[in-house]
Amino acid sequence: MIYPIELRGSQAMINEIVKNRIKIVSIFKWLLGLSALGFVIHFPDVIGHSIVWVVHTFYEATSFVLEHFLVHNFGFDKDLAQLIVFYFSVVVGLGTTVLFWRYWLKGYLLYKFYALQHQVIYYWHSKRTVEKIKLILIYSALMISTFILLIS
After folding, report:
1. What is the four-CA torsion angle of 99, 100, 102, 104, rounded to 10 degrees?
2. Of 107, 105, 132, nearest to 121 (Cα)?
3. Which residues of 14-35 are buried (b: 16+ CB within 10 A; e: fewer)?
4. In degrees rounded to 5, what are phi and psi of residue 76?
5. Can you tell me the distance from the alpha carbon of 75 to that of 92, in angstroms, rounded to the nearest whole number?
6. ∠ CA 122-127-129 to the nearest 5 degrees?
7. pTM confidence score
8. pLDDT for the residue numbered 7
9. 67 exposed, middle or buried (CB, 10 Å; 0-12, 13-18, 19+)?
10. Residues contacting residue 9 through CB under 8 Å, at least 6 positions apart
11. What is the Cα–Cα distance from 87 to 145, expressed in whole angstroms?
12. pLDDT tens for residues 30-80?
């Protein structure tokens, strides 16, 4: 036969075990959250460095192969081959930049500019006249003080 006092004692012991597990889980969640935060902060730097390192290594290896190809197949000296490879890479880089600007970045930046323009117009129209006057006076004072600072 089980007495009620024994049940209370065993229930108290179970409650303590559950509380300890909850504390361990909360500490584990806290540590996991901190490590995730550190990972999020540190990860882009590591990934960016790794990508730049791989791209640079690929560029150096490709330019080295092209230099030796020009030296051995066309009889150029090493300096002339390096100049040809350098200017070829500059032309390819500028061409890629122009194509990137023309077909993607220009449209994206125009979209962002128009979105910002609409936000500013909405912000301006939502203000009362007194707030508009305050904004104009504050920005005018900032512009005049900056101008005076620059010419003095």
Report:
1. 140
2. 132
3. eeeeeeeeeeeeeeeeeeeeee
4. -70, 155
5. 24
6. 135
7. 0.47
8. 54
9. buried
10. none
11. 47
12. 888 888 887 777 777 777 788 899 999 999 999 999 999 999 999 999 999
Render pLDDT for 66-75 as a digit per residue (tens, 0 to 9).
999 999 999 9
CA neighbor of 85 nearest in space, from 100, 103, 65, 107: 65
> Which comes out higher in pLDDT, residue 10 or 73?
73
Q: Provide the angle, in degrees to the nearest 10, between the axes of the packed helices 4-74 and 78-100.
A: 130
Residue 81: how many CB atoms within 10 A of its CB? 20
Instruction: Tokens for 144, please give them.
Output: 């005049």
Amino acid type, 141: A
Token reading at 70: 């020009």
151 token code pair: 């010419």
At residue 99 the predicted structure's pLDDT band, cuts being 50, 70 and 90, is very high
Dist CA 18 CA 11 (whole Å) = 10
Distance CA 93, CA 95 (A): 5
H or E segment and range at residue 113: helix 106-126
Average pLDDT taken over every residue of the chain = 85
